[in-house]
Amino acid sequence: MTYCVGIKLNAGLVFLSDSRTNAGVDNISTFRKMIVYERAGDRCMVLLSAGNLSIAQSVREILQVEQLQERPDVEPLTIWNARSMFDAARVLGNAVRHVYDRDAKALEHAGVDFNVSLVFGGQIRGEGMRLFQVYSAGNFIEATLETPYFQIGESKYGKPVLDRVITPDTPLDEAAKCALVSMDSTMKSNLSVGPPLDLVVYEANRFETDKIVCIDMQNPYYRMLHSSWGQKLREVFDSLEDPVWDDAHTDVPLKVSGGRSKPLKKISRPDERLI
Amino acid sequence: MTYCVGIKLNAGLVFLSDSRTNAGVDNISTFRKMIVYERAGDRCMVLLSAGNLSIAQSVREILQVEQLQERPDVEPLTIWNARSMFDAARVLGNAVRHVYDRDAKALEHAGVDFNVSLVFGGQIRGEGMRLFQVYSAGNFIEATLETPYFQIGESKYGKPVLDRVITPDTPLDEAAKCALVSMDSTMKSNLSVGPPLDLVVYEANRFETDKIVCIDMQNPYYRMLHSSWGQKLREVFDSLEDPVWDDAHTDVPLKVSGGRSKPLKKISRPDERLI
């Protein structure tokens, strides 16, 4: 499995990926799932991948040479000459389709789904930052103000904290912290998501980044986050009142006299029915 | 979808279920997913169901008349005369198999999986409390000290808080609070899990319970929990330090000079490769 998240903010972009892969629980390996494509001053793009590793690696391999020939009189489109992130995402989608044409049939014979999902974001000089999620069919969607992040892989455990924290106005470092908390929750619940983690933070209109770090479990910041989050979550839980069944002695009774919803009927004899 | 959780503690049992069902997002209904079987002073058993609603309802219907004839000279086993929860769980598993025999083929023709999962727990006089999860094949597993709870339906969003809080020593009301927080996180992230909620708390060795409540979104305790949990979670998040990229000025640097793990290499030219 995999967990990757890409976040688009007004201040920049945040990308985080784990690096565990598994073919069954008895075959665990480490593969990095992030690539940074950067021509400083011109474009900075980050690709995150999840799904079948052979497909993801093939896509990454051919992405570098992938060309979209749109018209005979125009230079073919590549991620290095694309004038917009949208066009670069089209090149990426096309690379997925090439791998499909080459491998899907043989995978199907082997009973393996053609399954890959990608997050691709960045900025090309001349336009704003953009963030895309690319599907197995090579089609893609773009992040918007309302939904400023994309997750791929094991997304459920880490989603609640993103939903609570991330808005387009979130500062970059706070969003990086949020992505790491989201990853921490995921690693706690899904063994097939694991370290080291790759984190990239891109500041808007820089067209390059030096905020790239590989975080292992010895990383001081990650260790602090991991232990403090667990401990403080528990403190918050303890600080909430336990339910009180008798509504006479509390402002927030659990059982309300004459409540609006009907409590369950019990069944107390073999011949009794609910309805 | 559905979310149900059953928890076994030294002090008793806690059961919580939502009541939303859906056949696609355009067909949402309300069905209660919990039944309490109780012969006061002798046995108190609670059944939670998830999966295909027609299967779950059929299982509930025939469970009342289901008999396991083990030997011709012995009275057939039912949930009402079983002398252990294990035997009662066998009767339940058998009910699932009866529905399978009746419906599975026709469901398969219609392209529908035979999909049902059940949590079944309680206490019969003469033994301790027990909690089981019953699968579509009618087989089942029992909760232990190490894993004192079972979830069925949409389990992922609500699992982290259970893992952080629940141990066999957790007091009953605290466990009920934990189940409600778990449900709250699930309802926030999965539209197909919804109110009203049915909560039952069973105290050990009582062989009956009056702690049964139907909780809708107007319930004062649930409203308090919902708003306080969200707000305090956010406060905890804000209280954690943001990452600092420069390791000179912090005890917990994100980027460590000479860190153990290699940062990602960037790709900066079309002919460059990662490896």
Automatic annotation (TrEMBL), chains A, B:
<keyword id="KW-0647">Proteasome</keyword>
<dbReference type="InterPro" id="IPR029055">
    <property type="entry name" value="Ntn_hydrolases_N"/>
</dbReference>
<dbReference type="InterPro" id="IPR001353">
    <property type="entry name" value="Proteasome_sua/b"/>
</dbReference>
<dbReference type="GO" id="GO:0005839">
    <property type="term" value="C:proteasome core complex"/>
</dbReference>
<feature type="region of interest" description="Disordered">
    <location>
        <begin position="256"/>
        <end position="275"/>
    </location>
</feature>
<dbReference type="Pfam" id="PF00227">
    <property type="entry name" value="Proteasome"/>
</dbReference>
<dbReference type="GO" id="GO:0008233">
    <property type="term" value="F:peptidase activity"/>
</dbReference>
<dbReference type="GO" id="GO:0051603">
    <property type="term" value="P:proteolysis involved in protein catabolic process"/>
</dbReference>
<keyword id="KW-0645">Protease</keyword>
<keyword id="KW-0378">Hydrolase</keyword>
<protein>
    <submittedName>
        <fullName>Proteasome-type protease</fullName>
    </submittedName>
</protein>
<dbReference type="InterPro" id="IPR016545">
    <property type="entry name" value="UCP009120_prtse"/>
</dbReference>
